[in-house]
Write a structure and sequence with these properties.
Strands 1, 2, 3, 4, 5 and 10 form a six-stranded antiparallel beta sheet that branches. A four-stranded antiparallel beta sheet has the order 8-7-11-12, with no helix packed on it. The protein has helices at residues 2-21, 26-61, and strands spanning 62-64, 68-76, 81-85, 88-102, 115-127, 132-135, 141-144, 149-151, 162-165, 169-178, 187-192, 207-212. The protein is built from two helices and twelve strands; from the N terminus they run ααββββββββββββ. With 214 residues, the protein is an alpha+beta fold. This is DUF4352 domain-containing protein. Residues 1-23 form the signal peptide.
């Protein structure tokens, strides 16, 4: 749409210069042509720049790797959803959903599936106490409004859980693999078991968070 607007605007500018020049003498006409050529050049530069921007955006939505090709259907890097479990704070700052076409050599890693949907949550967990607290957002479970339920794919995820020894934090990406196509998913629910102390006694409630894809 932006490229079309820039193109139409450029045509309108050039047409306006030509129409104005028709009623002027030769010297003014030459000046008008020069201005028209200058405007056309600027418009061409704008179009080229917008083409580059669109190509960059397209590249961001398709990611190639040795494992396969990930086509991102939804991404929100501006989330700021927070929850607490006892002395532990959990922040989810981003979500991404995409369809992964798995390369032949890596099918075994995905139970032989040629296509899977990858849901990635960017998380940060922080222990606000001086005690050692166990909390495992990287072993969380998600459900979707399309009927999926999946535990975190720990092999592909960052270490965001475990024992938090005193006032420390851990952050990274936690991935989940589901079967529903990315385009069909409208909501993702996150469930994390409550925090516990060194004696495995509960010190916090289970965390439940919901993310509507808008």
């Amino acid at each position: 749409m932006l490229k079309k607007f820039v193109f139409l605007f450029a045509v309108m500018v050039i047409a306006g210069m030509v129409l104005t020049a028709c009623g002027e003498d030769t010297s003014d006409n030459s000046e008008g042509k020069a201005k028209a050529e200058s405007n056309q050049s600027m418009a061409s530069d704008d179009l080229a720049e917008n083409d580059k921007t669109d190509e960059a955006n397209d590249d961001e939505m398709v990611q190639e790797s040795e494992i396969g090709t990930l086509r991102i259907a939804y991404k929100n890097k501006d989330l700021d959803e927070n929850a607490e479990s006892g002395p532990v704070k959990l922040n989810v700052s981003g979500i991404q959903i995409g369809d992964l076409e798995v390369n032949e050599d890596y099918l075994d890693m995905f139970d032989g599936k040629k296509k899977v949907t990858v849901i990635t949550l960017k998380m940060k967990a922080e222990n606000t106490s001086d005690d050692t607290i166990g909390f495992y957002p990287d072993q969380a479970t998600i459900t979707t409004d399309t009927g999926d339920q999946a535990d975190a794919a720990m092999f592909f995820s960052d270490n965001v859980g475990g024992d938090f020894i005193g006032k420390v934090h851990k952050e990274g990406d936690v991935m989940f693999l589901v079967d529903s196509p990315a385009k069909d998913i409208g909501k993702v629910n996150l469930i994390v078991d409550g925090a516990h102390d060194e004696g495995f006694e509960s010190v916090g409630e289970k965390v439940e968070m919901g993310f509507v894809l808008e």
